[in-house]
Structure formats: C-alpha cells, structure tokens
Specification:
The protein is of the alpha+beta class. The chain is 36% helix and 20% strand.
Length: 661
C-alpha cells in the first residue's frame, strides 16, 4: 500500500469513527486506537502535504450537529486537543514549547471522559448551554444542563462570562441507571460516557434530571486581564461557584510533569468517575498567542492519553453453561479483579476454537478487559507466568444432564440435544415467559428456578399445569396467596397470546420476534408451519438458509410436535387472525422506527403501524417510505435524510395514527 492509499484509508476509518462517536454516540473503536490513527494521519499529512485535502478529518473538530436540538453558533470556536501517547511524545511537545517561549510552567489536569459543554452567563445568571458540535456550531441543551445539580444557576458575582466544562456520569449514577434499565428490559449503556451523551440529548429534561449527571468546569473563555494563568482561572471559577476538579498541579519541569502523570494513572481506578488521560497546558495565558494554534487544536496544550484499561488476574477454572437452544459455552472463572468501574469474576470464553486459538489454560494468568467497555473478555495469556498447565480439552458431555454433546460441521458451538435437559429447559422457560414472548408477569428467572427446585417446573408445558398445585405453591417461602393468584392469572391470560408470540417463545434457533411474525403471516396456522418444506421457507423474502434449516429441523422432531400439541390441549389458542386493514395513508407503506419513543415501546409502535397496514422494516433503503425518529436516533436517521426519505418525530407519528392533520 502506497502513502496516498494509506492516507485515504485512514481518512475513511477516522471519518466513520467520528460519525459513530459524535453523532451516534456508539463508538466502534477505542479512544486509544482512534487517537493513534489520527496521530498517524497527522504525521503523514505533514510529511506529504500534497496529499492533504479539505475533507481530511484533521481539519475537523468534532461531529455533525443533530437536528433534534436548536443549533447554536459558538462565539468562540471550541477546539479539540492534540494527543500524545507516551513519554517520548510528551517530551517532544514540551521541547516545542521551549523553542517558542522561556520561563513558562505547565499545568496538568485530569481529562474527564464525558461530553464537552459551552456555558454562558449574563450578569451572573445562567442563560445558555450548548454542545461542542463541529466546534463552530453546537446544539442548544440549556434546559437539560439546567437540571445538573452541580451547575450554579446564579454565580457569586454578577459577571457576564462563557465557561467550558465536561458533563459526565459518575459510576454510582451509571450503575443505578443500568440496573433500572435491566429491570425494564431496556438495552444497557456500554459505559458512563455513552450514558452521559445519550442522556444530555433527551428531549425530556425530567429524564435528564433523574439520571444523576455531573459537571466539572475547567475553562474560562476570554478571561479578565487580572487573571493571568490557568491556575488562577480554576481558582476563580471555584470562587464563582463552579465545581472544579481538585486534581490539578503546576510544574516547572518535564520531570515533575511525568511523575504526576504516573500518579494520575495509578489513581484513575479509584476515582468515582471515568478519566481517559491528562490535559497539559501552558499555564501562563500571555504565552498562548505567541505559541499559536492549528486549524484543529491549540499548540500550547495537549492530552496525554492512557491506554485502555486491562488487568491481569488468575484463571481459576473453566466452567460451562447451557443456553435455551442447547449451546454449551465455556466460562472463565477468575480471581476477582476490578476493571473499568466494576469487579469481574467471570468472563465468556465463547467456544472451543476461541480457547485453542489463544491457548488459554486453567491456572494461567490472563489479561482481561471489557469488550465495548461492558462485556468481560479474556484478551491473552501471560506466558511468562505459565508453569505446567495442561492444554484445554472441551468436555464431551452436557454439564447438566450428562448427554453427549454434538458439534455440527461448519459451526463453532457444541450443543446438548437432549430435549429433557434441565439446564436447557430452565432457560427455555425463562425465555418463553419473558417480555416479547408470552409476557407472563411474575414468572421471572428467580421464580422459575425456585419452582424448578421444588419440582413444579421442568418444561414449558408445566407452566400451564401450575394451577393444579395452587395450595402447594402457597407453602413455598415467599409465595403467599396473593402472589400465587396473580401468577396464575397472568399464566391464564397468556393463553390468548397470538401465534407469533408463541412461536418466538418456543426458542427455535435463529427464529426471533421478527422472523416469527413473518412465518405466521405466511403460513397462518401452526399446522401449516409444521408441514412447511425447506423450499417453502426459502421462498419467503428475508428467510435465509440457516433459518429455513433450523425451522425444518425443529418441526421434524416428533417430540417438539407432541409438545406443541400438548400446549394446545392445555388451552393455548395459538391464533392468527388477519387484521382488517383500515383505509389509512400508511397502508402498504414501508416504515422504519429509530431512536427511543417516550410514549410507546418499540413493539407497541410497530403493532400500531402494522394494524394500519404498514410494513415494518429494520433497515433504511430506497424502498423505505417513512422513518419515525425518536430521541437518540442515529445512522438510520442520517441515511434517511441522505436518501431524501420523509422523517417524522413522535408527535407527528401520534397525529398520523389518529388521522389528525
């Protein structure tokens, strides 16, 4: 690959990463990797200026401005910072400053991992807050920022100033938010930064207020002449009533700075919020103009970036867990270790091939991190600490029922195919009763495990025989008369669930909620589906070979057929009623939902749209007629606008379904 090709490749990767990070709040690569790529592009463009173009990401400061909020023009450009990744690069930065000025000091501050914000005060009163946006134009988030408890609405002096800071979500707030989302069966935020960014873009400030955001202020824009340094500015900001991070220090030498960075790196695991580096600035303001700036960043400041956090720990054992489809997954049992805000004691090892590729062995010392900042994962083995550990050998029998495992040709997973396996059946029951499937209120994972231990639940059909044991159920600790009665009523209601929900609840491999609806729409009855051939299934648009084979295999199993027939005998209606399509402008229109709706769940909105004759799609294409965008809409919204497809918000959606104009 020649130089120009590498520059073009870097521009493409970085531009995609910019969009993922700034617009979608969904980064695909780590900050550390992004900064390294950008640094490489900077260096190549400096060496080969003939290849630098106006569309280079080195000319940009941030991402595009979303249309969900009013645009705000920044009076003073919000610049980014250059990055250094090691002591050598830090020394080079320091030496460049020494060539420009003498008698200077530098100040080190923690680099908070959050969302940059520009805040204005008039006569000491808070009037406006905006995001960085592209550095020139941002988004008006005034009402949301107003809810942050650490923000002073009135300053201690009647001054008209602009300040800048970082909105972030403390670990405590983040954990509380994700616990609540887990309870509500909502997708979890990957990390506190994503949670903060997603929260600040909520259209309802009440939601923002409930999520416990915080703010550190670190910049006084255009300070009064009596304030001559960054250190003085921080003290003045604190005097005015702002929350200023206490971890900052001035340095007269590069040696002092490097030692302090090591201290910061060591303390970041104990802080109640995330940091991803250290910001270093020339302390004295009088030198800033002389040192100057580039199009993108000031030359008098830089950010020292920490490596993505990883920790070494001992792999005590490899255990195995079974899923509802029979997949047996190896799991690393680890000596507990604190990584990225939480204590990790287990991590998935995916499958036999993954373990053998990395040569992971019991009693090894391994490096772990959180993939996507949330899923514990084993990175690699510290071979220097290996002694006489034996190579991993995959188990041959199910860890729960003892039946022989099988691994199909072309697949990485091992399966337990015993339909009576307790481990498999428990997970099947959990899925069957869950939201999106039969939605049996009160029959969650803990209740199912308890009822299994007491001998009442061994397979899905047992759920519909629980009423026969009502008196015995009330003798189980924690199961009073009221709780049992509510549970039995919920089970009885679930018998009326339509066929597509039952089909999804059965947990057929590769058959999710959407595929279930497609199958039921095509075949209408469970008998027709049972008798469908591979060719019948492949004739359906969006049904591929894997799904078709899985469905045929499931219904060719006589035990599965008997189980379904027994469920019908127990009262499950498994009905499919063709909805009468009303005369509506959405009839036969292809509609895509994106973002979060405040008044409807995604399933509720889709059901309403389908009842009006709309065809739901999960992706935007030239065939899409309408996109309904809620808060936090991302790439689908952008693609719709690029293709010129009509986009409406939730209010317009509500008017549309009610035939209001």
């Amino acid at each position: 690959m020649d130089i120009k090709q590498r520059i073009d490749e870097l521009k493409r990767i970085i531009n995609e990463a910019n969009h993922d990070y700034h617009t979608l709040d969904n980064p695909k690569i780590s900050d550390y990797e992004y900064d390294r790529l950008l640094s490489e592009l900077n260096k190549l463009e400096e060496q080969y200026p003939e290849y630098k173009t106006s569309d280079s990401p080195t000319n940009k400061i941030g991402g595009a401005v979303l249309d969900a909020f009013e645009k705000v023009q920044h009076e003073y450009k919000m610049m980014s910072l250059s990055n250094v990744f090691n002591e050598e690069e830090l020394r080079s930065f320091y030496e460049r400053i020494e060539k420009e000025v003498t008698g200077f000091s530098v100040i080190s501050e923690l680099k908070i991992d959050g969302l940059a914000v520009n805040i204005k005060y008039v006569d000491g009163v808070f009037v406006q807050a905006s995001t960085r946006g592209d550095g020139i134009t941002g988004e008006n988030i005034t009402e949301n920022v107003r809810t942050i408890k650490s923000l002073p609405l009135v300053l201690s002096e009647k001054v008209s100033i602009t300040v800048r800071g970082e909105i972030f979500m403390p670990h405590r707030s983040f954990n509380k938010l994700n616990e609540k989302r887990l309870e509500n069966d909502e997708p979890l935020f990957a990390n506190p930064r994503n949670a903060a960014a997603g929260t600040i873009r909520q259209l309802d400030s009440k939601i923002v207020s409930s999520r416990g955001l915080d703010l550190f202020v670190y910049t006084l824009v255009e300070p009064d002449q009596k304030i001559t340094s960054q250190e003085e500015a921080l003290k003045y900001l604190q005097h005015l009533g702002f929350k200023v991070n206490p971890h900052y220090k001035t340095h007269q030498t590069i040696t002092s700075l490097i030692e302090q960075i090591k201290i910061y790196d060591g303390m970041r695991r104990t802080l109640p919020y995330d940091i991803d580096g250290v910001v270093i600035k020339v302390n004295e303001f009088k030198y800033h103009d002389r040192i100057g700036e580039t199009v993108k960043f000031p030359k008098w400041a830089t950010a020292y970036k920490f490596e993505a956090e990883k920790q070494e720990t001992e792999l005590i054992d490899i255990t195995f867990q079974i899923g509802r489809t029979g997949v047996v997954t190896p799991v690393a049992e680890l000596k507990p270790v604190f990584v990225s805000g939480s204590t990790i004691s287990r991590a998935t090892l995916h499958n036999e091939d993954y373990i053998k590729e990395k040569d992971i062995r019991i009693k090894d010392f391994v490096w772990i991190h959180k993939a996507g900042e949330i899923i514990p994962e084993v990175l690699n083995v510290n071979l220097d600490k290996r002694t006489n550990q034996k190579p991993f050998k995959m188990i041959e029998t199910c860890p729960v029922c003892g039946e022989k495992l099988i691994r199909k040709e072309g697949e990485a997973d091992h399966f337990c195919v015993n339909l009576d396996c307790p481990g498999r059946n428990i997970n099947q029951m959990v899925h069957f009763a869950s939201r999106g499937a039969m939605d049996i209120e009160g029959l969650g994972e803990k209740v199912i495990y308890t009822l299994h231990e007491f001998g009442f639940l061994n397979q899905i059909s047992d759920i519909y025989n629980l009423h026969k044991n009502q008196d015995e159920l009330m003798t189980i600790p924690g199961f009073g008369e009221k709780k049992v009665q509510k549970l039995l009523e919920a089970i009885e209601r679930s018998k009326d669930m339509p066929l597509d929900r039952v089909l999804f609840g059965l947990g057929i491999k590769h058959v999710g909620a959407k595929v279930s609806k497609m199958l039921v729409k095509q075949f209408e009855t469970i008998e027709n589906l049972m008798n469908a051939t591979y060719e019948d299934l492949m004739a359906i648009h969006e049904i591929g070979e894997m799904i078709a084979l899985s469905v045929v295999e499931y219904f060719h199993n006589e035990a599965n057929k008997r189980h379904i027939e027994y469920l019908r005998e127990l009262g499950l209606k498994m009905a499919f009623s063709k909805q009468e399509v009303v005369e509506h402008e959405l009839n036969n229109k292809t509609v895509v939902l994106t973002g979060k709706l405040e008044n409807y769940s995604r399933d509720q909105a889709a059901s309403i749209l389908e009842s009006l004759g709309a065809k739901m799609s999960s992706s935007v294409s030239s065939k899409t007629d309408l996109v309904i965008a809620g808060s936090d809409a991302g790439s689908k919204l952008k693609k719709a606008r690029d293709l010129g497809i009509k986009v409406i918000d939730e209010n317009e959606f509500m008017k549309l379904v009610n035939n209001e104009t």
